[in-house]
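Q: Got a minute? One more chain.
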Amino acid sequence: MDNRLRHIHKLLASYSAGDFDRRLPISKHLDETDAVIGGLHMLAEELKAVTISRDYFNNIFNTVSEMALVLTAGGMIEDLNEAVCDRLGYLRDGLIGRRVDVLTEDVRPSLFQQLRRRRGPDGLVRIWNRSFLTAQGEAFPVEITARVLAGSGARGRHGILVTARDIASRLSMENRLLRAMIDAQELERQRLSRDLHDGLGQQLSAVKFLVGAVVKESVSSPLREKLQAANESLVDILGMMREICYNLMPKSLDDFGLVQAVRELAAQTEKAGLMRVVVEEGRGFPTLARALEVDLFRVIQEFMANGIRHGEATHLLVRLEVKGREVEVRLKENGKGFEPALVQGTGMGLRNMHARIKSHDGVFRLESSPGKGTAARISVGIG
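A: Always. Here it is, folded:
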């Protein structure tokens, strides 16, 4: 009996060392010791299966190229793969036990709050508009997918599996495509404005000159009155054409820069009785790259048009300033406002504004609520 107990002791030592294939013979007596040995053999099979599954999971967990983290239900980092350490520059032990929000920029809502709020009925969450921070504090954009993991223990403990993909290269390609599309659009606007001004505008001016000359030489009062009316119509047509040319490509933007072009747009809007516009320029506001000035002007123009058409706004504040290596444009109108979530992705104007700023790696934030007007904040780096 003592000899069999010594073999059982060695068997347990083998199992604790990870050797789950060792077995002891079962005697013919089938006594209690044999029952214990049989139970240990069954335990070895279960431990072997669990170990294989764990090792299989760990191999997958650490070989995938995407960053992967396992969080507790409270948002603490419980496990992470090698891709997290490689991309972010952290040591594994430096992140285990810390809150997941340490990996993200200090914006609200926090990443963990988003994971909790956006969870669907299937436990799946997708987030596209976040950035991770390296150990050196450098930010890069990520696409995050998360799923709730239900534990099988007695307490039913839940965790969260989070995967994050670095999308900086993809966004850079998207921005280049956006930039090419916007530049092509602006070139076509410029060409059309020039053709209207230099072609049709010149011809209309010539016709107006001839009609005016005939008016002076006419001796018939009825004919002179009709020619005078025609001349006045030509004046109106020329004024409308100049307004179209300005909307297509304001000459002041090329000649005097963004601030002057916005002031001119404000003056025209007020003159038409559409809206009171106040333009404020911060100290030291710089001359920007032409493409950026055109896009900022277009966004301001679109925001103003939306405020007049949809918001029924009567007052607009435009604030242009520079903060360090960023230019910031703030827009605020007093219209009836709206619920941004209800129009997300439906308005071409909003998509165009976002696309123009995104093409410069900038940030466009829109805030509105019913009865409280609409505000926008644009931030773009300038090198």
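A: Confidence is low (pLDDT under 50) at residues 152-156.
Q: Perfect, thanks.
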